[in-house]
Write a structure and sequence with these properties.
This protein is α/β, with parallel strands linked by helices and 155 residues long. Helices cover 42% and strands 16% of the residues. α4 packs parallel to α6.
Length: 155
């Protein structure tokens, strides 16, 4: 399975030749918390999906009621937001996925990999490589690698 560097994936998903402009970057545990710096290095926006969810909650909310649909709406919002750059590094998705059922996680990855065509902003989603229960299926990872939309710096 051939994987690319993060900068190679960003270059590809930034180009408008792809119908679905989302990529996945598998990070080593030591790189977690460094996403904003990595986004700056790659010259892309940094989007903390967990903070975005928190900002959307009404005041005095006690329970989030997190669903696969809510996560998909957040990702779609980032991909369609006007006035931002053409590419965003999305991080902390793993924190949201960890509260969902396996079937919901599977549905989210299917949406990200196959069902977000022609968005104005490409997404490079970071995930800890060690969070194997939260990652796309092996078949989906192979598909992303084949399409050159997978970066893996976890060795």
């Amino acid at each position: 399975m051939e994987v690319k560097t993060p900068s190679e994936v960003v270059k590809l998903i930034r180009a408008t030749i792809l119908r679905i402009r989302n990529g996945l970057w598998l990070l080593p545990t030591t790189s977690l918390g460094q996403e904003r710096n990595e986004a700056a290095r790659l010259l892309v926006d940094a989007v903390d999906l967990r903070q975005r969810l928190i900002r959307h909650l009404p005041a005095d909310t006690r329970f989030i009621g997190l669903t696969d649909q809510k996560v998909i709406e957040l990702l779609d919002e980032v991909a369609e937001q006007e006035g931002q750059s053409d590419c965003a590094l999305v991080y902390n998705l793993d924190l949201l996925l960890s509260h969902l059922k396996q079937q919901e996680i599977k549905y989210i990855w299917q949406h990200v990999i196959e069902s977000m065509p022609h968005r104005s902003c490409a997404l490079l989603i970071t995930m800890p490589a060690s969070a194997t229960d939260l990652l796309p299926s092996d078949e989906q990872l192979v598909q992303l690698a084949r399409e050159k939309r997978l970066a893996n710096t976890a060795k």
